Amino acid sequence: MWKKGSVRVNGIVYLYWIKVYDVGSEFGIDGGKISKITMKRGDKEVCNYDRGWDIQPTDANDKLALELILHSEN
Question: Can you tell me the distance from the alpha carbon of 21 to that of 34, in angstroms, rounded to the nearest whole number?
Fold first, then answer.
């Protein structure tokens, strides 16, 4: 199932789109339920995973935003 949402970290709003399943798989992030994620800060794509990392977050706020999403959805 596709989901979209937003998360705020230190005043920065991140929009994200995820493909999440009911159970984890080898294709999910860390074997979890999210097999695809795109995360944007403004117009900039800061994270993309499509059964493997295309763009890993590098900024501390970007990493925290991803961790919040993983904690709630993965």
Answer: 7
- Structure tokens, 43: 């117009």
Give the strand pairing for 53-55 and 34-41: unpaired
> Structure tokens of 8?
């705020």
Q: Using one digit for the tens of pLDDT, what is the confidence trace for 7-55?
A: 999 999 999 999 999 999 888 998 999 999 999 999 999 999 998 999 9
Contacts of 68 (CB under 8 A, 6+ apart): 7, 9
* CB contact set of 71 (below 8 Å; sequence gap of 6+): none
Q: Is 68 exposed, middle or buried (0-12, 13-18, 19+ CB in 10 A)?
A: middle
| Chain CA centroid to CA 53, Å | 11
